[in-house]
Design a protein that fits this description.
By secondary structure, this protein is an alpha+beta fold. The chain contains five helices and 20 strands.
Length: about 350
């Protein structure tokens, strides 16, 4: 009744004051709500924007790593008995084998020193393990990478899209990652270099059994041929070979991309026409020699295993089992056809005297 006696101006003033009061009350309630939400997030140890900082870190590593990889020739400092041989440091890192580079201080860059890429150095990435490349590029320990070099421009149209190099750990299970690319000259072509950094876990690489000789006659040793089919070199530390009742680690060397290793019952008498890397498995009993055979031609098995660093758990990467139905003849090796079930005779070919290292 009192408000009805107010003049029009006074009524509008009261209405405005009531509206202002409502706005102030709403804002106060909203601020209180934000305070409560902020307190909840703090208690939950959540920070707005933390994922952005993590993404920036991965982005910067990818960019910096790509620059280090492509801007120079790289360099290597070899080690003798653990001591760095600084006096003989060189940018010709691409002239050394995988085992030598495994323990060296290494930046395996692929530039030619004049802003272009060098095909010899790209090819030499096959003597560098993924871990050594990660370390050389300054990428955080525990992360992985994937490197691809693809032709994007060429006078030969059929080469466009061809991958000159591609290897590394798949990003499939990653929760964080970043990619950096740049296009550069390689001879008379243009190629795109793409470096991906991520946190996906790494599984055993693709070391595989490609040929074996069981129970040969007339004294030669038994042997098993292994191949690294990947683009990067493979650190052999953690890899092992086993036959029933016997087990041996391969050793602390490295196997270059596309190269083969012969595990033998006797390194002194092993037929080795390609001068492939040899590892003697005679003393452990995994493989035999002379009159002492470990593998029976009429039925036996060989297992390739891998033990993760810092653990004692060995994964059976692949096992070959054969029986008398394979009808393995004396002094004939069995060569895998690189496809299908390892334990099916249809995927193996018998070769007289064998082709170790080929």
């Amino acid at each position: 009744m009192e408000e009805a006696n107010l003049t029009g101006a006074e009524a509008r003033k009261v209405h405005d004051e009531n509206a202002l009061t409502a706005v102030v009350e709403f804002l106060s309630a909203f601020v209180l709500f934000l305070v409560i939400v902020s307190a909840f997030l703090a208690l939950s140890q959540l920070k707005l924007g933390s994922n952005v900082a993590e993404a920036d870190r991965f982005d910067q590593m990818a960019i910096d790593g790509l620059e280090k990889l492509t801007d120079s020739k790289g360099h290597v400092v070899l080690r003798e008995s653990g001591i760095r041989d600084i006096a003989n440091a060189t940018d010709d890192w691409h002239l050394f084998n995988a085992t030598t580079l495994l323990t060296a201080d290494l930046l395996p860059a692929i530039g030619d020193g004049s802003g272009h890429l060098d095909m010899q150095r790209i090819s030499a990435l096959g003597n560098v393990t993924e871990d050594r490349l990660i370390h050389g590029l300054g990428i955080d320990e525990g992360l992985n990478l994937n490197l691809t070099i693809t032709v994007v421009q060429s006078q030969n149209d059929s080469r466009v899209g061809e991958e000159i190099f591609s290897d590394g750990t798949s990003r499939f299970a990653a929760t964080r990652g970043s990619t950096a690319s740049r296009t550069m000259h390689l001879s008379d072509e243009m190629v795109r270099v793409t470096l991906e950094i991520h946190n996906a876990g790494r599984e055993p690489a693709g070391l595989r059994i490609t040929e074996f000789m069981a129970d040969p006659l007339n004294g030669p040793p038994e042997w098993v041929e292994l191949e690294n089919p990947d683009g990067f070199a493979m650190n052999l530390s953690g890899w092992s070979l086993a036959s029933p009742g016997a087990f041996q680690m391969i050793g602390d060397s490295a196997l270059g991309a596309g190269q083969r290793l012969i595990c033998t019952g006797n390194a002194q008498t092993q037929y080795n026409p390609t001068d492939a890397m040899l590892v003697d498995f005679g003393a452990s009993g995994v493989l035999g020699t002379g009159s002492i055979d470990s593998l029976a031609a009429e039925g036996d098995s060989v297992t390739l295993g891998w033990t993760r660093s810092g653990t004692i758990l060995t994964y059976d990467v692949s096992t070959i089992e054969w029986d008398d139905s394979w009808d393995i003849q004396s002094n004939h090796s069995m060569t895998y056809n690189l496809g299908g079930n390892l334990n099916s005779i249809t995927n193996w070919t018998a070769v007289n005297t064998g082709t170790p290292g080929w």
